[in-house]
Amino acid sequence: MRDAKSSATSRRNLLLGTAAAGALFAAGCTSNENNDSDGNSKPAANTADDKPGKEVTIGFAGPQADHGWLNAINEQAKRRAKEYQDVTLESTEGSNDTAQQIGQIETLINKKVDVLVILPADGKALTQVGLKAMRAGIPVVNLDRVFASAQAYRCWIGGDNYGMGLNAGHYIGERLKGKKNAKVIELAGIDNLELTRQRTAGFDAALKNYPNIEKVGRQAAEFTVESGQSKMAQLLQAHSHFDALWNHDDDQGVGAERAIKQAGRDDFLMVGGAGAKRAMDTIKADNTVLKATVLYPPTMAASAIDLARALGQGKGVGGLAELEIPASLTLYSAVVTKDNVDEYLPTGFS
């Protein structure tokens, strides 16, 4: 599954919503030059846009599609590349095996691609191959799971795991703020992953703002349907009453919802995580305990292709005054509810 930077680093990164990020890459309206006398600014000469430009070959080394979110990452990257007439995508077979992925990336380096987009199976273990690419003059866009050295990539783009927990906690807190002695439970992901610890830390931090709420239970699952069902069943058995559940991942949420249905429970609200289309459809129907999901948008892969194209063409990002693309972009973890689900449904993944 996904890995992440420390929450402190995330706080320093530029925060962008997915819609805003798309607008930045597509627009070409920000100027680095003085305004004309009529008050209109000139488009920056180095701004990336949709018009065909210099041909760019992008090497993409993504994950094995053994999870809905990971499959969406691969699909988003391939779909975005096809939208550009000037982009050729050299894509490897997805792999979660570190040695195999290193070999795949070395093959792309030997092919002398113009730019690399890499979602590493293990950021620390693949740092050296990222450094190798950068030393060979091939800029690297590091996607989500971060390398151990900033020298191994030109730009990092990814999600905000701490922000996911924070926003889930605030949503639940606002829903329960008028309730005395409210109780919440948490169905986490894999505890030995930093991303899971960050999501829990953000959730706990948000709940501190609501003294009427107590977290009374937590189980760590494994981002699978089966684990979601078994761990949720344990939580339900241990807690005869609670008011809200935060589940870190919509895929394991399928199992959690099965356990909830089997137990005949509907006395609490549930918040999911990641932004699966199935979850959004359920939220829109508004006929189960699932009332919201907090995004960890796989659209970051499409934005990574935008960044790689801009790097290959020596251009900046539309909508920003800087001549160069930023070194780091953290996407915002929006909360999707029945009130805004139609806006986010197109980003939902299967």
From TrEMBL:
Domain Periplasmic binding protein: 58-315
Cellular location(s): Cell envelope
Comp. bias intervals (Polar residues): 32-44
Annotated stretches, region: Disordered: 32-55
Keyword Signal included in the entry's annotation: yes
Assigned keywords, A-Z: Signal
Coiled-coil regions listed: none
Pfam families recorded: Peripla_BP_4 (PF13407)
Signal peptide as annotated in the record: 1-26
Family per similarity comment: Belongs to the bacterial solute-binding protein 2 family.
Name listed for the protein in its UniProt record: Ribose transport system substrate-binding protein
